[in-house]
Structures are given as C-alpha cells and as structure tokens.
Amino acid sequence: MRSGAKVAIVGSVFVVVAGGVGYGGYNLWNGVMGGETSPQSNSAAAPRTGPVTGEEVTTTAGEFLAAWAAGEPEKAGQLTNDPVTAGPAVAAYRDGAKISEAVITPGTPVGAKVPFTVKATISYEGVTKDLSYASELTVVRGQTTGRPLVKWQPTVLHPKLTATGTLRTGAAKSATIKAVDRNDVELTAEKYPSLGPVLSELRKRYGSKVGGSTGVETWIDSGSETVADIPLLVLRKGKAGTLKTTIDAGVQAAAEKAVKGFGKASVAAIEPSTGAIRAVANNPATEFNTALQGQQAPGSTMKIVTAAMMMQNGLATPTTKVECPPDVLSRGTTFQNLDRFSITDGTLTEAFRRSCNTAFIKAITRLSDKKIADTALGDTARDSFGIGQVWQVGVPAADGSVPESAGSETSASYIGQGRITMSALNVASLSATVKNGGFLQPYLVARDLDDREFAKADRLSPEVASGLRLMMKATAADGTATEAMAGVPSPKGAKTGSAEIDGQATSNSWFTGYSGDLAAAAVVQSGGHGGDAAGPVVARVLKAG
C-alpha cells in the first residue's frame, strides 16, 4: 500500500449474512472513515480444480477490489488471469479519467459473478463532479495454478470500456462553435454527415475566434478512428460561438443525397462569382474528406485546362480544324479514343464536346520546343486556374498538382492522366473559373477571420474565357454531357471525364459543370463514363442551386 494512504471499509468485512454475502464499500486511494485494512492473499491456498467455490469468489473479488481501491494496479493485475493487461489498465483508470476519489460498493455474488457499483469523483481544472455506474466481475480458476482469479476484461473497470478504449477527462470533444450556413441555418454532422470532419476542424481552428470556449468532459476514448468515442460526463459546458460558413444548406442536402446512390463518390460545389464553397459531400462520410483532400487523376475534365493552354499558345481556337484519328502514337506510346472513334474535318469545339483524346495529344507536336511542351500545361494550370498554388480554404484541402512531365507522361497529362492529381473541389474550380472568366480561390470561411492569404491567378483573356464557355456549352447541349445536363437551367456548360486507374477494371467517372452562378464537380470510383455516374450527381447539385 502507498505510504500514508489508507483504505477504509465502510461497514463490516465479508460478513456472511442471510441471503448471501454482504460487502462494505471500498474507497479508492483516500480513506473516508479512518481505519486501515490489508486483505489476505489467497496465494498460499492449495491448488484446486473444478468450479470456484462461493468462498473463493468472495475472497478473490474482495482482494481484487481492495487492491484497486488502494491504488495498487500491479497487485490488482496479479489477482487476474491476465496481469500484463490488467495492471496497466487499472493504473490508467485513475490517471486518464483524473479520478481524485471513488467508492466501490460490492453487491451479492451470483454464482461466480460479483456485481458492484462505483462512485468516482473526477477533478479537472478546478471542476469536480461525480460519475456513478455499475459493473461486475467474474471469478474463474487459473488454468495452470488452480488459483481463483478475476477473469480480466475491460468492462470490469467500466461496462462500456473496450480493449482499445481508455477513460479520459479533458477538453470537450463536443461542439464549441455553432456552425451556420450562408443563411444562418445551423449545420450539424447528424443532418449533414459529410460535414462531420469539416465541422470538427472548424471547431479546432476557429472556436476561440468566434466567442466560443472549450468545455470539460469525461469520455471513453475508443482508440480507433472508425469507432466513435463515448461521452460519460460533462464537467463544464463549453460556450458555443457562432461561425458563419459559405455552405448553402439546400445545396448541401442535395449533394448528400446525390452521392448516396454510389458506393464511393464525392462532390463539391462553388459559387463562381465569389469562390464561396456551397457544398461538400462524400459517400462514405469518413474523417478523410475526399471531396476536398482527394488526389486522383481527373481524366478528360483536364481538357478544360488543355484547351485553354492551346488557345494561349496559339495552337487552336474553338473553330480551328483539328485532327481526331482513332489513335495516335506520341513519344513512344499509343493513345486512342473510346471505342476508337474518329472525327473527320472537325473543329476543336467538336473534339472537346465529344472528348477526343487524340486531338488534344496531337496538339503537343505543334509545340516545337519540347521543354515548353513539358511545362506548358502546368504553367496554364497554375497561372490561369490556380492549380498547384497553396489554397487556404479554411480546412485541410489538396491544392491540385500538374507537375512538369517528360516523354509519354506529357502526352497523358493533356487528357488528365499521367502524374496529374486533383480533388472534386479542384475540378469544380475549373468550371467556376471558366464561368467567372478568372480564378477565385475557393473558401469555406471568410478570409478576414484569420487574415490568411488567398491564392491568386491571372484572369483568362476574354477570347480564352468565351472560347471555353462556348465549348462547355456545346458539350452540355449536344455532346458527352447532354443526357446528364438535361433539365439543368441555362446558362450552362459541362465536361465529362473518365480516368483509368491501375488495378481497377473500370475507370473512375468524372464530371464538372456550371449553371447560373453555381459550379460543381463529382468523382465516382469505378463509375465508368463521366456522364453515366458522376454526371447525375453534378446535375442534382446544380438544380438545387
């Protein structure tokens, strides 16, 4: 027993009474009635076999509870059939939960089981509260020694505790801010599951900036990212500040429903005239927010940037005749169109609306300097669309990447393959940039909240902006996006895409488009053609705008 510590027994010790065995209550670590006792050990008992007896149950349970009560985790662990696990768990019980005092009151044994109640006093940052609950333990016979031992399981310490869990007391995990949408509608993870990780991050970053204060709670930390923690006690309530976001609750609700129709899907929506993020949704809704943080090849949606690069470098205009053969050999690799289709005597607009791979790849050969060819797409992506710059959205988000390439990787990059990576938010921003005529960095909370720096890019020239809008309009009206965009209000434009991923039998489906002052993009894993899977997701979101 620790020096100076006393374990008091409330009432008598293991007195046999009519109807069962009566126990007193053990006080953890601090005496409540004075007096000191040290329970006898059963280690000297002769090895036995067969079921444990009532006397063994009574004695073993008493010794274990007394050791737990005395703050002797090693001794308590040795009285179980798994001392290696039990000892540290008993020690962590007090330290993790910040328990200053507790009383254990055993009940009447039922066979080998002994029920008991715990009244724990938790003290943290000047706040003290009691946590009361009931649990039970079971006494079994040791397989090698024959000794009666407590069968160790985490539920002995608390009925909701698991093998990976720990009792904790500290800063509250409950909301310290009330997040609202652009129209002051409250946003919760329960109503909008995809916003769960977003709201969690907003609490961490901005809770103190909007008048919020952190509360104090006791909870069971599950020890797993996929299993929710279990709240047990609120010691001090936090003060909720109100944080206004750019989310539109109506568009967000439509986005949540749209992705539910697919196994793995993500969508993001942006207001082109401001860069404000109106919706972010994922299925499944996990801590990793794929719509914002995903880094995947965007497929032919990248042809928006490629077409801009071609116009900026004088390679073509929307009305320029371009070649669209079934396949093309470029830098040692053969690329082909879907089902090896071709277009005879077509324009760049025709190639764009039908998503002709070979027309865009053949354009590389007209850039006489290979070094320019290897960097031109990345330059346009960064300088005109903000892709590759640092985006300060307000929560973690991928910036998109169009790195310098070489050889056939350059050819692949023009159709959104190779080393290019983007998220649904990045691709939605491509459409938003076209609609607005210039890049505005997407954001979720106002910049003046923390004075963060927004990424900037040059505005598209009027000729390039109008040319891109013309081609995206043609794609939505009479191209690969026609079916998906039917019923979406004008003015509208779109671009489809599919990205081949190593190890996947079916391509990822990509789609981006705009309608009025709303732009969106979606990706459906293994969804196939862009218009078939991702297209309906984007259309549903745009119709809600």
Q: What separation lies between the terminal Cα atoms?
A: 69 Å
Whole-number radius of gyration?
33 Å
Average of per-residue pLDDT values: 88
Helix content: 25-40%
Shape call: elongated
Could you give a short account of the major beta sheet?
A: 6 strands, antiparallel
Query: Can you tell me the residue ranges where pLDDT is under 50 for at least 5 consecutive residues?
Result: 1-43
Number of strands: 22
**What is the structural class?**
alpha+beta
Q: Give the helix tally.
A: 15
Strand order of the largest sheet: 1-4-5-6-7-8
Strand content: 15-25%
What would your notes on this structure say?
It is a single chain. The chain is α+β, with helices and mostly antiparallel strands. Helices cover 28% and strands 24% of the residues. The protein is built from 15 helices and 22 strands. The strands form seven sheets. It has a six-stranded antiparallel sheet. Helix 5 runs antiparallel to helix 15, helix 7 crosses helix 10 and helix 7 runs antiparallel to helix 13. The radius of gyration is 33 Å and the shape is elongated. It starts with 8 loop residues before the first strand and ends with a helix. The N terminus is likely disordered.
